[in-house]
Structure formats: structure tokens, C-alpha cells
Amino acid sequence: MCFVSLIDLFMWSQATESLTNTAVSLGADVNISCDRDIEEIYWYKQKSPDPPVFILRTYSSTYEGAEYENIIFTHKYSVKTNSRLFIRNITTDELGVYYCVKTSEPLKFSNGTKIYITDFVNKNQTDLVPQHQKPWLIVTIITSVLSVFVIIAVIGVFFRLI
């Protein structure tokens, strides 16, 4: 397991100034290359405002493969070569900035690759809500509107009494 210190986070924040932007479509697969010329690396994902999440570590021997931080990551992430991270079936959960970090001390962070959805900006907010959640969205909107009317009515009654 890898530990990120405050100094490392400071170095990390400095690396975000030179991000590579990668636009993808929902459901697509994506390859991210590490700009470090090394084979043994850590891969991290950062999704603001959350702290960085360690995904996996690669080794110099392809026989050793990758060591995952969480078994769930094996379904989404893999390494094609030790310096390329492969992400399957992009969802909004995979959006963020990906970093590779050399395993030896001192840690050296890559500039980072920001993954964002190309059609995300063009969709309105209700298009982003899954179909099974749309009835709850409608109920929430109706409840909010009714609450506003009740508050206005209570204020009106209060001022009539004065």
C-alpha cells in the first residue's frame, strides 16, 4: 500500500499545472500513457475535492502484472504495458485526473491526464439523471414548488393578522 505525505500532495498540486486533457464518450475505453520513462509505477486518480485514490502498482516484470489497491478496480483498470493504464467502459465515476508516480524515492508525479466526457457539457441536468431516478426528480421538484407556495401563504396570513 502506498502512502502520500503532505509534501507529496504539494508536489502533486504543482504537477496539475501541466495537465493533458483527454475527452472521451461515456462507455468508451481509454488508454493513458505515463510520461515517466520507467516500468515500476503507481497509478492514482484524483477527483476534486476528494484526496487522491491509489489504483494499482505495476512492476518491471510483466509476469508480476499489477497489484491492485482494491479488488473492485480489477473490473475497470488494467495495464497494457507497465506504463499504460487501460480504463474500460468509462462512466462518470472514472472522471478525474490520473497520475503515474515512480515507485522509488523521492516520488515523482507525472503531469497528469484529465479525463472528461465530451458530451457532458451539451446535456442538460435531467439528461444526466438515470431513467429509474427521474420520477424522484419530478417528486422533488413538485415538493420544492409546493413548499415555496406554503411559505408564501404563511407569510401572507401572518402579515394580514398584523
Automatic annotation (TrEMBL):
GO terms of biological process kind: immune system process; response to bacterium
TM spans (from-to): 136-159
Signal peptide: 1-18
Subcellular location field: Cell membrane
Residues of the Ig-like domain: 1-110
Gene Ontology CC terms, in alphabetical order: plasma membrane
Domain of life from the UniProt record: Eukaryota
Pfam families recorded: V-set
Record protein name field: Ig-like domain-containing protein
The keyword Hydrolase belongs to this UniProt entry's keyword annotation: no
InterPro entries documented for this protein: Ig-like_dom, Ig-like_dom_sf, Ig-like_fold, Ig_sub, Ig_V-set, TCR_complex_component
Keywords assigned: Cell membrane, Disulfide bond, Glycoprotein, Immunity, Membrane, Signal, Transmembrane, Transmembrane helix
Species of provenance: Sinocyclocheilus grahami
